[in-house]
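Q: For a teaching handout, I want to show students what a protein-ligand complex looks like in token form. Below are the inputs, and the small molecule is NBP. Please produce the holo structure.
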Amino acid sequence: MTNTASTSPTAKAQIGVTGLAVMGSNIARNFAHKGYTVALHNRSIAKTDALLAEHGSEGSFIRSETIAEFVDALEKPRRVLIMVKAGDPTDAVINELADAMEPGDIIIDGGNSLYTDTIRREKAMADRGLHFVGAGISGGEEGALNGPSIMPGGPAESYKSLGPLLESISAHVDGEPCCTHIGPDGSGHFVKMVHNGIEYADMQLIGEAYDLMRRVLDLPVADIADVFAQWNTGDLESYLIEITAQVLAQTDADTGKPLVDVIVDEAGQKGTGRWTVKSALDLGIPTTGIAEAVFARALSSSSGQRKQAQGLAGGTAGTAPADKDAFVDDIRAALYASKVVAYAQGFDQISAGSKEYDWNVDRGSLATIWRGGCIIRAKFLNRIRDAYADNPDLPSLLLDPYFRDAVESGVDAWRRVVSTAALMGVPVPAFASSLSYYDGLRSERLPAALTQGLRDYFGAHTYQRIDKPGTFHTLWGGDRTEVEQ
Ligand code: NBP
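A: Here is the structure, written as tokens, with NBP included.
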């Protein structure tokens, strides 16, 4: 074992990090910057040595080559953070560590694991007397180094020992750490998954706003960059709006065109958006904004089909609004309202997941720790935090007085944007579905009554009446009288 910096040969590390690719290296350095001694391990030793060669002088590290050396370098109870690829690699590392660790030690999985895997792993580790903490970590490589948002689940007891370390490396907003114990077993990875789903919706909405300015208003890209920069000084202030202005302002060195015009328009996805939608379907929660965002990426990537469909007529029903500034303002209002819907739906999914798995997730704390460090960090999250502080049982964010006012005052603009987009043939799946969701939510009666009638007709699925209790069926194939079941 080789020691670097000020670590003496017998000193033990307070935390170990295994998996030293971009995320693990930066988190290890972050711990070291905060004064912790960090044990380092990676499957291939070259990464460990590269980290020590480049950054060994930044703090106190202990190098290890084998899991046995790594575990031996840690003070007890041991705390090990795994930052490897999600799925089978994570299982392999957990099993190897579990064989070398002792009851009471803590294994933290900081990767993007599926929450059901985390539930399974936590149970398996608990059976061996080990604490297993599935921790969602957001903020990308920059956040990992300078302060991510951290969402640890797992046993509350482990948070007593682990919490101070994680809180010290997390981002801070108004002096508060962007890290809190989320709840038992898979809760941390579940909320991180929904966070990523909201990130998908947020980016899709931003993309639609940009596309409208481009295709309906014919604004130059540089002007659109300025609009986003301007929006970032108001209610929409957020990391994603800020970097949208920067990406749009970027000129391609080779062609002199805006960079966005030379990037292939096929959006990739690593899977957390898809997981969020699958979970929403299982829980029966309409997270339409996230689903539309996932589908929009899928459509963008159907390049063969898109190419062949390019000649399809779009009609001539629409004309561009005459007052461009007024329409830009309408788009801003539509973006804000749709964003409120996306967050309202995401928080609904978190409430449903929390209920399903008995996690008792505090939505206000979640909004608090998403204010900094993570990709969806936004001024807006202060409002969400306040909404849950005012009413912890809020049935929907849309019913909080502040958000209700904000959406109601923008609803006409929202309708103008969606209808203009439809008339002009510009796709706005997230804007439009958010507006439909809003209208569905506020409707006194929905056509679900007819759906129930149809289901009863073809499948005798029964229905309930608005005027008396009970379950009823109409004898559709007979004399069409109603019978109570
Ligand atoms: P990667 O997800 O690219 O994983 C690379 C690491 O996994 C390397 O250390 C590699 O070791 C190790 N590994 C693999 Br692959 N298979 C292994 C196995 N069977 N046994 C042991 N180690 C194995 O790294 P990353 O981008 O730094 O992300 C790490 C985790 O953090 C992932 O779960 C990711 O989803 C999550 N995450 C990433 C971001 C981000 O912005 N990148 C943000 C938030 C969370 P090797 O060097 O020997 O090949």
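A: Two things your students might notice: Residues 19-24, 42-44, 47, 83-86, 89, 92-93, 111-112, 137, 140-141 surround NBP (CB under 6 Å). Confidence is low (pLDDT under 50) at residues 1-7.
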